[in-house]
Design a protein that fits this description.
Elements: E1 4-6, E2 16-21, H1 22-35, E3 41-45, H2 47-52, H3 55-64, E4 69-72, H4 75-83, E5 89-92, H5 101-106, E6 110-113, H6 116-129, E7 133-140, E8 148-149, H7 153-160, E9 165-171, H8 182-204, E10 211-215, H9 217-222, E11 230-233, H10 249-253, E12 258-263, E13 266-270, E14 275-276, E15 282-283, E16 288-293, E17 311-314, E18 317-322, E19 330-333, E20 345-352, E21 355-357, H11 359-365, H12 370-375, E22 382-386
Parallel strand pairs: 1-22, 2-22, 3-4, 3-11, 4-5, 5-6, 6-7, 7-8, 7-9, 9-10, 10-11
Antiparallel strand pairs: 2-12, 12-20, 13-16, 14-15, 16-19, 17-18, 17-20, 18-19, 20-21
């Protein structure tokens, strides 16, 4: 398992490590709050270990900043938050078997009702325990994964009337808010329309409607006119977003929390024609110096970054990957980096000198999403917490 260090030190930076900057998180929270309509609260989405940003460290920082609502994907994540000292509300966005109603009550966790059958079973489990269970009702407005169909207000009203469930919220999820293509804008507007139509129908039926939440990160960035009681933000908290020029300036104001760095273990000199690594995929076209790095795909370096698709920064100079990415090691072609030596630092995500490798570049090169890159960083990678 990885070690956690507070502040940079020789021991903390001895192999491969992640730097986690909590000041960047605080900045992003302030940026998000500046965008909210009056009276709107934040639900901090910290699922998948806070998108790879270590929920046990980032969630308490968020709570210190006055955030009182959190969301995760599964029961074990919710329990981990409680064990990390989180006192605020915690919502599970995904499925939990009603068999675990005892744990939901014990830890004071709210569960999403994902469909009618789930709601009935949760109500039955709560009745058997003799206590009401906190829940939120999921509404399907067009994502077609989880939820009661927004076009069926009678079924939604039936769920909201279940006597052993304490409804803390009602919500839906957008499918395409990260796109500004006309068809996707129309689809988002359709989804919002379905949600608010359902809310009005429930009110006209005399149903008490709990707290509403609809916006996700890109919903808040691209559709700030859509107003609910809360916004659910995850990627935005952690400075993740497409930073292409045509994207919102809001994204450019967000700060990434994570840098990924590693020390050069050794340097191999190859003569012209000699090959490096598995499959002899890199063959030197000239006398070349290859830095052997102690990280691989276990630390999140996709094999798709092989043979120059990926880059790192050594002594302020961008250098290409050499050969295939292995489970625990990879090579960098540092032939054009004068004076590079074992023990020098290579930056795979983050800044070094005047160069920066943004997560969007690393994700694009690996043909994946920025969130997936962060989530892959691995349990072996030491963590250095900055500005705790």
């Amino acid at each position: 398992m990885a070690n956690i260090y507070y502040g940079l030190s020789e021991r903390a930076c001895s192999r491969t490590w992640i730097e986690l900057d909590l000041d960047a998180l605080r900045h992003n929270v302030r940026t998000i709050r500046s965008l909210l309509q009056p009276g709107t609260d934040i639900i901090a989405v910290v699922k998948s270990d806070a998108y790879g940003h270590r929920a046990s460290i980032t969630a308490p920082c968020l709570e210190d900043m006055g955030i009182t609502k959190f969301a995760v994907a599964a029961l074990d994540e919710a329990i981990e938050l409680r064990e990390a000292g989180i006192k605020g509300e915690i919502l599970i966005l995904g499925y939990t078997d009603p068999l675990f109603a005892t744990e939901l009550m014990q830890y004071g966790i709210a569960q999403t009702v994902i469909d009618r059958r789930h709601g009935l079973l949760l109500n039955q489990a709560a009745a058997a325990l003799g206590h009401k269970l906190d829940v939120h009702l999921k509404i399907d407005t067009g994502m077609h994964r989880l939820g009661i169909d927004a076009r069926n207000p009678e079924e939604a009203a039936e769920m909201l009337a279940l006597e052993h469930l304490n409804y803390r919220g009602i919500y839906s999820h957008f499918a395409s808010t990260d796109s500004i293509a006309p068809d996707d804008i129309a689809y988002t507007r359709m989804q919002a329309g379905r949600f608010f139509d359902l809310i009005e129908k429930l009110k006209s039926m005399g149903v008490e409607v709990p707290m509403t939440h609809l916006q996700n990160t890109y919903g808040l960035i691209n559709y700030r006119d859509i107003a609910c009681d809360c916004v659910r933000v995850g990627a935005m908290l952690f400075g993740m977003g497409n930073r292409e020029p045509q994207k919102s300036s809001i994204v450019h104001d967000l700060r990434p929390l994570i840098s990924l760095r590693s020390k050069i273990a050794t340097i191999r000199t190859l003569q012209k024609g000699e090959c490096f690594g598995y499959g002899t995929m890199f063959c030197a076209q000239r006398e070349s110096r290859i830095a052997v790095m102690p990280l691989g795909y276990w630390e999140g370096m996709s094999r798709k970054l092989a043979c120059g698709r990926g880059e790192a920064i050594v002594k302020g100079i961008r250098v290409p990957f050499a050969g295939l990415v292995c489970m625990d090691q990879l090579g960098l072609d540092i032939t054009d980096v004068p004076g590079a030596e074992p023990g020098d630092i290579a930056t795979f995500i983050g800044k070094d000198g005047g160069e920066e490798i943004e997560i969007v570049y690393a994700a694009t090169a690996a043909e994946t999403l920025h969130a997936e890159v962060y989530c892959r960083t691995g349990r072996r990678t030491d963590l250095v917490v900055l500005n705790a």
